[in-house]
Amino acid sequence: MKRLKAAGILIFAGVVIITSCQSTAARKAAERNKTASDTTLYTIGLTAAEREAILNSPRTAQIQQELNYFYNNKFLRTGFNGAMIVARKGVIIFEKYHGLENFRTKTPIVDSSSFQMASVSKTFTGAAVLFLADRDKLSLDDHLQKFFPDFPYKGITIRMLLSHRSGLPNYLYFCDSLWKEPSRYMTNDEVIQLMIKHKPPIQHQPGTHFQYCNTNYMLLASIIEKVTGEKYAAFMQDSIFKPLQMHNTFVYDPSSPVRAHQTQSHKYNGQPEPDTYFDGVMGDKGIYSSAQDMLKWDQALYSGHFLKPETLKAAYTPYSHEKPGVRNYGLGWRLMVYPDSTKNIVYHNGWWHGNNTVFYRFVQDSTTLIILGNKYNRAIYQAVKPVREILGHGDGEEAGEE
After folding, report:
1. What 3-state DSSP class applies to 349?
2. DSSP state of 338
3. Contact indicator for 328, 318 with CB cutoff of 8 Å
């Protein structure tokens, strides 16, 4: 009888183990399926046949041939050190990595290398604010005193910050004379407190002129923290980078250890470009990302699932008309606006220390150009014109460096 009981217990245990294994396997399968569905959700959603058609088209072959010639015979000769991707509807048709993440350690640049995005970081900060607006956490017409009651500059809305029409002074300039601890990293809150205490002069009346200003996006990052109750870095990680599977993207913390494949900033001669006390301020800069992750960001915006279509349309709407010409600014994006709106270009460049970044989105045919460098090189911006001509989007208008 005891033997029968023991056998029964063994059988029961076996059933439990098998059931547990099946449950674990089912859970892992569900997680894999969720990951796959998430990946599909934030892309244009091409079929395998459509992707193959792009890769195998005669036009793609011609573009690849011309890009290879330009890259090998002209671009590399400028001393380019970085990553470059050209994609069509999310399909990579040209991808190159050249040089070193760090000239001291001789670590080569690879597809997972993360670069300081400089002002291209503004595209993330701006989109995060729009993300919160979509969820009724804030209104673009909210005034700054709602978040900073003592802020001395009146009549400024979130929309004005996003479109660089606030008229505020640039913290990169006024802090030089006001910040007394150059050996310590500043924070966003400390910049705001300096503005409250010293009231550096406004550049123009709110809503009257376009003036590109890093203070705007520093304030937007702080508003994100006020609204969500989270640190800017944590919110960006949880709400943008993780859902979009941007595994090599993060908000930089200058006091933390260097991450794997985080590139070092270099001067034009290859010497390291050190951080300054401004590197503790986030929102206008400070996001690191890889070229492949930036393509994921591009695709998420095209997918129509990350932001509402009407919100995205507002982001790509020009808000400044004081000067004639095709160049303008939306909500977090530089724009080139043409009479034929199908040819419009949505883009942003960046420059911080020795880092130069280019992120162009040709909406007419969903072509994307990404160039990231970690050794100061103005040729990164100058490369846009010949590449645009190769892609069939040349018109003589170029943005230059940030």
Report:
1. strand
2. -
3. yes
